[in-house]
Amino acid sequence: MPGDAIVAEELTYRYGELVAVDHISFNVAEGEILGFLGPNGAGKTTTVKMLTGQLKPKEGKAVLLGMDVGSNVEKVQGQIGVCFEETNLYEQMSAAENLKLFARLFGIKGFDANVLLKRVDLAGRENDRVEGYSKGMKQRLMVARSLVNRPRVLFLDEPTAGLDPASAEAIRGIILEERERGATVFLTTHDILEADKLSDRVAFMNQGKIVALDTPHNLKQQYGKRALKAKVATSSGGLEDREVIMDTPQTPEAVNELFTREKVVTIHSEEASLEDIFIEITGRGLQG
Amino acid sequence: MNLRIIGAFISKDLSLFFRNRFFASMTVLGIIVYIAIYFVMPKQVDETLQIGLYTQATLPFFEQVQEEGLTLQAVDSEEALKEGVVEGEYVAGVVLPADILESFMSGQKPRISVYFASDAPPEIKESVESIIRELAFLQAGQVLPIEVTEEILGPDMLGKQIPPRDRMRPLFAVLLLIVETMGLANLLSQEVERGTIRAVLVTPMSVIDLFAAKGAVGVGLAFIQSVLFIAVVGGMNTQPLIILVALLLGAVLVTGIGFLIAALGKDMMSVMAWGIMIFVLLSIPSFGVAFPGTVTDWIKAVPSYYLVDTIHRAANFGSGWGDIWYNLLILLGFDIAFFWIGIIVLRRKFR
């Protein structure tokens, strides 16, 4: 039974009068991928800053790998990898130099940058200055940099934002590989499908509070509704949409009625998305 | 503090500093150009004697003592005369009493005051006395007894007149130090604006390690350059230890100021804009040394004054620890203040 890699206890942070993070508590098990979702300004970045030792909580505490972050910042930071949303690489240096610098900061001896660069498909460009890279290449290098110390906890902030589908899929592959290796992944994203696909559990954050935290399946069970979506032919020769809500006592009768009284042209089932659930819970969208 | 991490970061910063063509060029060219300027400047002093004269008496013959290499300039008041001497306009100022003629006539010894610039050569003293006697002779037609009282204005450096190029040494040293400040500030502001500082601070590198590394790069680059310059232009020939300590304190001062500029600037242009403003301010005390009389006492509020004054006095007049310890102490105070404020302000920016 794995222990908890991340424990947040009543974490709180205020910027003056504004409460950015309001007494949140949660835990993430070792080897788990937690999708951290919420609109802009919900407090996600502030939470990550407190978990990674960049900000000192005003109240509460964060414990990573059994260590209190506040009193063991450098030890904790030696065990984590952070991939930021904004590109923050040394652009006048090459990819290999960037990785080697961070390997030296982590005190890694005999570091071979090429292994990581190959993994993010940057082999062959290792000696080019980063300023000449495309956004996708820079993003892949950011992910590689967060893996330099083989972190036990990996914080990824929008790791696939703005990437082409192939690059995004490659990054998702790396995230899953890291989980296989035993790393815990704290994934902050706006990409609902990505969170749904990768996360063992997702946390919804809104206005500084965690409003829901569970597996995507359980959230859908609890808050979402499944439906049958059909297109039926009308007497004038056109098409109209019909929807039958599932999992209710009236569902069998409604389905029966649909097929006996209407001329069904197409039909498919539809499951609620995590965004639908977020809207259901908070009354607002995730992109806000 | 983790020396391994600091070492890695210093090595990265030096590499990036010299990859910036502008600052790399400024670093190399700065030394070459200032050394070249130093050596093409005259190493001889101007031997023309410009003497100020204040008297309420009517002396129709005084123009007759004007000769080659000597100029007598009448001034309106004793205060103006003193000011002229302090500002280097005259190597000496002579005050003849209003009743000089009556004194001569009655056989008394008139008392004549002479003010000397602090760095006037010793020959001036004798020359000025001769001139006064000549004046008296021209007036009375015979050799008359006179009493001359001398006063040195400013620190007594009589007999230690220095060539213009040696006066310029502190200015060049300060300019070299300040250019390095802008290089450091640019590196730092880039780190903050591009967010790389956040990336390194989620590794085991602490804020203390970060400032230690940045400080070492700033102090190191500024110190090495200024020492190299001063050594090549002969500024280490007297009191080398004092010069080294002064330059080290100067390098720490400009590094602290570099932290401040980095906090104010957002990119290379804004760093340059702020840097040039501070550059001008810090250079002013050097002009006071290079061109005596061009500035007044307010320059003592400019931190670089204590660096410039120390270099000037130690390198040009051989002043020892006892003469300038307070300069170094004040400089150290400014170092601590600027370094501390710089760190606080910069830390707030990237938090």
Briefly say what this structure is.
By secondary structure, chain A is an alpha/beta fold. In chain A, 33% of the residues lie in helices and 30% in strands.
Q: How many strands of chain A?
A: 13
| CA-based shape of chain A | globular
For this structure, what is the CATH class of the largest domain in chain A?
Answer: Alpha Beta
Total of helices of chain A:
10
Distance between the termini of chain A: 38 Å
Fold and architecture overview:
The complex is a heterodimer of chains A (288) and B (351). In chain A, 33% of the residues lie in helices and 30% in strands. Chain A has 288 residues and is of the alpha/beta class. Chain A has a six-stranded mixed sheet with strand order 6-7-8-3-9-10, sandwiched between helices. In chain A, strands 2-1-4-5 form a four-stranded antiparallel sheet. Chain A has a three-stranded antiparallel sheet with strand order 12-11-13, covered by helices on one side. In chain A, a hairpin with a 2-residue loop joins strand 4 and strand 5. The longest helix of chain A is centred in the middle third of the chain and has 17 residues, at 165-181. The two termini of chain A are 38 Å apart. Chain B has 351 residues and is α/β, with parallel strands linked by helices. Chain B is built from twelve helices and five strands. Chain B is elongated. The mean pLDDT of chain B is 79. Classes of the chains: A alpha/beta (288), B alpha/beta (351). At the A-B interface, helix 2 and helix 3 of A face helix 1 and helix 7 of B.
